[in-house]
Structures are given as structure tokens and as C-alpha cells.
Amino acid sequence: MTQMQPELPPIRSMRPAMTADTMARTGLDETVLTELVHGFYARVRSDPDLGPIFSDRITNWEPHLEKMVAFWSSVALMTGRYHGAPVPKHAGLPVTWAHFERWLELFRETADEVCTPEGAAHVVERAERIARSLYMAAVDTQRAGSVPSLG
Ligand code: HEM
Fold first, then answer.
1. CA–CA dist 102, 57 (Å, integer)
2. CATH assignment at residue 55
3. In the structure, what pLDDT confidence band is assigned to residue 9 with cuts at 50, 70 and 90?
4. Which atom of ligand 1 is nearest to the CA of 93?
5. Taking the model in full, what pTM does it have?
6. 38 labelled as ligand-binding?
7. Do the beta carbons of residue 137 and residue 143 sit within 8 Å?
8. Measuring from atom 13 of ligand 1, which residue has the nearest CA?
9. What range defines the domain where residue 103 resides?
10. From ligand 1's centre to the CA of 151, what distance in Å?
11. CB 127 within 8 A of CB 44
């Protein structure tokens, strides 16, 4: 008797071929990204420097974590699941580059633990690029806030 293959969940994506290719190459999928996000924010929340910045602003963590899995699904797998605007959410945060370095350190640690080496390289490269642009946005608004208005 022939065994039926269990049906794989369909890949929902804006670019299904690219998503399937990245998944095959990196071993990343929604399950791995969920583990990455949950493991990463557990570290962030217990970090003495980063923890308070988040806990002052996020009281209900479940929706934040769900949003962050959608974000990473969009960034890493091009699924188009995230529809937000991260820049304004980081504008004016009380941070220096040292906070972003720490953020990246914890992200790398978690990625090395839960992803394949190819998967970790894929998400870390993207995190580093986005961290630089969010840092610029945060610092620009800090400066804008400290300069007397010319108007
Ligand atoms: C020191 C570094 C960082 C700090 C302190 C920080 C802090 C925060 C906080 C407090 C929020 C919640 C804002 C709110 O809901 O009002 C947030 C949201 C978010 N962060 Fe960060 N963040 C940092 C770095 C990053 C990096 C490097 C990324 C991406 C690689 C990132 C991606 C996001 C995204 C996608 C959201 C959700 C925005 C939305 O509501 O759609 N963050 N962050």
C-alpha cells in the first residue's frame, strides 16, 4: 500500500519562488523565526540596559512578539506579512549606538542558537543593516529635539 505524503502547509508569500528558495537555502521558516523572536526578546527583557527601555513602552508583549515574527517573516523570507513603520517607533528613543551594539550582540547570540549557520548569517546581515538606519533615525530626532526651532 502506498503511503500518502502529509500535506505541507502552503507558503503564503508576495514572492513565493523567492521565499521557497530562501527557506531551502537557509533553513529559516515561520517556526524558526518564532523561536528566534521569542528567544531574542527574552534576552532583551532581562538585559539591564535594554530591558527598561522596552518595559517602559511595551506592557502587552504578546501582540509585540506576533508583530515581530511578521516583521522577520517579511524581512528574511519576503512574505509581505508585516505592514508597519518601524522608523517613527524608534524616533527619539533614549539610545546611543552602544544600545544598538548590545541589541545586535543578543540577536547574534540567539540566531546562532536557533538557526542554521546560513540562516543566522541571513538574519544577522539584515538586522545589522536595519539597526544602522534605525540608529540614524533615532539620533536625527534626538538632535532635532535639541536644536532651537528656526521657525
Ligand atoms: C537599541 C535598539 C532598539 C531599541 C531600544 C528598540 C526599541 C523598540 C521599542 C520600545 C518598540 C516598541 C515601540 C512602540 O510600540 O511604541 C520597538 C518596536 C519595533 N522595533 Fe525596535 N528597538 C531597537 C532596535 C531595533 C532593530 C535593530 C530592529 C530591526 C532589525 C527593530 C525593529 C522593530 C520593529 C519592526 C518594531 C515594531 C514597529 C511597529 O510597531 O510596527 N528594533 N522597538
1. 19
2. 1.10.490.10
3. low
4. 5
5. 0.91
6. no
7. no
8. 89
9. 27-143
10. 31
11. no
